[in-house]
Amino acid sequence: MLHLSGGSYHILNWLALLLKTRTFDMSAVLDLQAREYVIQTFMPVLARKDYVIGYRADDSYFSFAKDFISGILSLRDLSEAMRLGALGEQVVLISPKAFEQIYFEGYETASYQEYHIKRMSKDNLARQEYQSRKRDLKTYYQWYSGYSFEQIHKALPFAELLNMYPTLHEADINKFVSVADEVLIESKRKSETNLSRLRKARGLSQKELAETSGVALRMIQLYEQKQNDINKAQASSLQSLAQALGCKIEDLFE
After folding, report:
1. What share of the chain is helix, strand, coil (3-state, %, to 5)?
2. Where are the domains of the chain?
3. Helices 206-213/235-245 angle, 10° precision
4. In the sheet where 89-93 sits, what is the strand order?
């Protein structure tokens, strides 16, 4: 038996099996890379197993899994989302031995209208609670930090989030914020400044930009090294640099 809902297994093992055996609409390159990463890293060993117990693969669960792969939903919240609506578990037979053990005993008639209403009610409840949570998750860190979504995803790609799982999956969201802040600050420190990028795009050296703009060479160096904050530069210097680079002043800001 392979019991993915308990023991030493976690949600990523269930997700890897789901991604391997079910069809998802994932056209983005990043989503496809994330899918392959999860399968290669977390696919459980099925050899010598007769049956699998795991979360039910209802429609709402597909929404949770897809958003996680797309980077919208955190790992901790994916685990919580899987429990919303109490959709339960399912048992899947996977070996000839297991199939040989089953036999027909009888049946009971179930009302389609009654069953369908109950099933859809649970599924809708899970979706509603999840959608409410998802709106919070998508905006919380961006709102808190002031970083753009592009900056966040660039500094914290999918693989990096998965690497954070062992230490953060039980932590409070404030712990994630603290760690994410450190990652984003370090990423920002290492990234090329807009001034440097625009200067290189114009084919100018730092010395040539200094001569063209009238801004001191050392000042340009300090801005590009992030030792001086260009966002706090004098308006006259910003105007001179923007004019020399053929850009808007706001294009220079970090």
Report:
1. 65, 5, 30
2. 2-145, 192-252
3. 110
4. 2-3, 51-55, 89-93
- Residue 60 contacts residue 87 (beta carbons within 8 Å): yes
Query: CA-CA distance, 7 to 52, in Å (whole number)?
Result: 13
- What pLDDT, in 10s, does the model give residues 34-71? 788 888 888 988 888 999 888 776 665 666 677 777 76
Spatial contact of 87 and 119, defined as CB atoms under 8 Å apart:
no
Residue count of the chain, please give it.
254
CATH architecture for segment(s) 192-252? Orthogonal Bundle (1.10)
CA 220 from chain center: how many Å? 36
- More confidently predicted of 61 and 90: 90
Pinpoint the alpha helices (H) of 43-155.
59-69, 75-81, 96-100, 112-145, 149-155
For residue range 235-251, what is the model confidence (pLDDT) as tens digits?
A: 889 999 999 999 988 88
AA letter at 67: D
Confidence of residue 115 (pLDDT cuts 50, 70, 90): confident
Write down the pTM of the prediction.
0.43
- Model confidence at 85, pLDDT cuts 50, 70, 90, reads very low
Answer whether 74's CB lies under 8 Å from 141's CB.
no
Q: In the block, which residue shows the tokens 């914290």?
A: 156
